[in-house]
Write a structure and sequence with these properties.
about 160 residues, mainly beta, 2 helices, about 65% strand
Length: about 160
């Protein structure tokens, strides 16, 4: 009986030592882009016009984020068509790609968790984690998008499914 107690206690101690996955652990892997939405404003002939856009097509063969931790690296590509509503619908190509490293910053319950992509061209893009499940994630960032000859800052959300 004493041996059973010691074995049970040992198993209980080992089970309690299981490491809680970090934000990086949860995000590591290959993620397929399955949703793109954007909102912002554009100046058209001196008038500020709101822009609301959502994907009408995402190329599944070239719209992925691949995040690894050892070594820390990221490669990403988004190839989509977004439909912008300006009173009339305009389809626009949306292409982004890059590579570099990535870091995370947990929000610890007081701010959203964040992911930073540090691109090889020297730019850094911050994404807020809006939702994270085992097989899906939603990220939000501000992107500068060329629209009708102007760069427009768009609040852009990406949905992903883990491959």
């Amino acid at each position: 009986m004493k041996k059973i107690y010691i074995i049970s206690l040992t198993l209980l101690i080992l089970a309690s030592c299981t490491k809680e996955p970090t934000l990086g652990d949860k995000l590591e892997g290959v993620w397929l882009v399955n949703k793109v939405t954007a909102t912002g404003t554009v100046d058209i002939l001196g008038s500020t016009v709101p822009v609301v856009a959502e994907d009408s097509y995402i190329n599944p063969d070239s719209s992925q984020f691949s995040l690894t931790q050892d070594p820390n690296s990221v490669t990403y590509s988004v190839d989509a068509v977004i439909s912008a509503n300006l009173g009339t619908t305009i389809d626009l190509p949306f292409k982004e790609s890059g590579s570099g490293t990535w870091t995370t910053k947990p929000g610890n319950g007081t701010a959203p968790d964040s992911v930073f992509l540090n691109n090889t061209d020297g730019t850094t893009v911050k994404y807020e984690v809006l939702g994270l499940l085992e097989t899906s994630v939603t990220l939000r960032t501000n992107l500068s998008v060329e629209f009708m000859g102007s760069n427009v800052n768009m609040l852009t959300e990406f949905g992903f499914a883990k491959i």
